[in-house]
Amino acid sequence: MAAIRSKIAGRYDVEAETEVLGWFKQLLNLSIEPGMRNVEKALRNGQDLVKLAKEVQKGTPNCPAKAKKMSLKANTLSAPFKQMENIQTFLTFCEHYGVPKTGLFQTVDLFEGANMPQFLSCVQQLGSECQRNGFTGPVIGPKPTEKNVREFSEEQLRAGQSIIGLQAGSNKGASQSGMSMGGVRHVSDIKTDEMSKDGQGIIGLQAGSNKGASQSGMSMGGVRHVSDIKTEEMSKDSASTIGLQAGSNKGASQAGMAMGGVRHAADIKADEMSKDSASTIGLQAGSNKGASQAGMAMGGVRHAADIKTEEMSKDSASTIGLQAGSNKGASQAGMSMGGVRHAADIKSEEMSREGQSVIGLQAGSNKGASQSGMAMGGVRHVADIQAGPMDQASAGVISLQYGTTEGASQAGGARGGRRDITGQ
Fold it and tell me: Is the pTM here over 0.85, yes or no?
């Protein structure tokens, strides 16, 4: 802060101080000792500034309306805020009288002596506005600027059309004779001869570097497209190499492939599943404990509508399989196959506390599962699974992915037909 104050104090102009103090002497008969701090102490209460503004207001016949309406009365109290109000009254009068806002000073600039050079400048600008507004008393400050309107004849304006202004450069040795104003010169209007043979093997530096480069045989005017570049077939040495931008080529081979085609996943053919994996269900299908697909061939789709069953045995007529919920207190006695069973028709009591903490095996278990015999690389779709008739050993077994077989029985049912539940 001290460095800033010292820098501001260095701009204090003694000649401006002499001019301002002389003006106070002429208008108010006020003698102030020279010196920055002396001027600050003498005028910091703002009373003499309000008196100066009042004298300027009285002596200006063409005083601006806002400045003329102001009631200028100094406050004689010694309270700091009252003294600062006097300074603010003087600043408001200066602004209404015509002093620009950039020429005003802040209240603390005088009251605390923060920027005395700006205070002197403001008083000088007030003297300049006095000259502009026709103040009858003595004035100070630089002479105000006035309008200087100039009119030119048509001949003078025409004569100026043949002159290039200096802002466009320098017109020494330049001539535009024969040219008329109004046209635009386009780059396409510039004609060039063919490139010399010496320059055909050189690439300009704006295009990079021409070391080892050659454009021999090319003529200016054409455009080279990437599609015009012909390449021969890939050499045998690089046939088994994948560029690093495609990943890593360790252990990879593209031998026998020609550049230009696209490999789709649909083009990958897979042989039939081996016999060892024919009886295995992958872990993604659930658990294969107690389940068997022996005798099934890959390639077909098994639909529920293909399962044929005979009438339900009397032993299982009153039993609901656990995969449908719980059969406690439920009965289907007297119902024949052929109708549709809706979940809404099944009435069940509240779940027992023992069963609330148990997750059925149909929610997933991978114990005893195996994917042996499967080859990586192809995509196995459900539609590719072909199934033959189920063998007799598994006819009475419900695999765990459908739930559990405890308490359930399908004895006497044969695979292949559609089971419908109809009411009797």
Answer: no
